[in-house]
Design a protein that fits this description.
single chain; about 90 residues; mainly beta; six-stranded antiparallel beta barrel; 1 helix; globular
């Protein structure tokens, strides 16, 4: 499990969050969970369409890029949790 310090899409959308991490089971099997995400509106369309998006993660081990679907957005809770599921390899940049 790696703590994530910054999250953005490869086309420049930045997400502000309180806490995030990536759990990597295999290069193409990973999930990321973010709590306290402020930009919920940026991911709502992606949740309903299940269209993969390219994300960049700044983490403890460096900068990573991966293709993922937005699996879940829990905006009903106070935590504003967003979960990403891999749709391709996680690559170190």
């Amino acid at each position: 499990m790696m703590k994530v310090d910054a999250l953005r899409t490869t086309d420049g959308k930045v997400f502000n969050f309180r806490y995030g991490d990536i759990e990597v089971k295999d290069n193409d099997d990973w999930t990321a969970t973010f709590q306290g995400v402020e930009e919920q509106n940026l991911v709502f369309d992606a949740v309903s369409s299940k269209t993969p998006m390219y994300f960049e993660f700044e983490a403890e081990g460096g900068l990573y890029e991966g293709r993922a679907i937005v699996a879940d957005v829990d905006s009903a809770s106070r935590e504003n949790i967003v979960k990403l599921e891999s749709a391709g390899n996680l690559e170190k940049k």
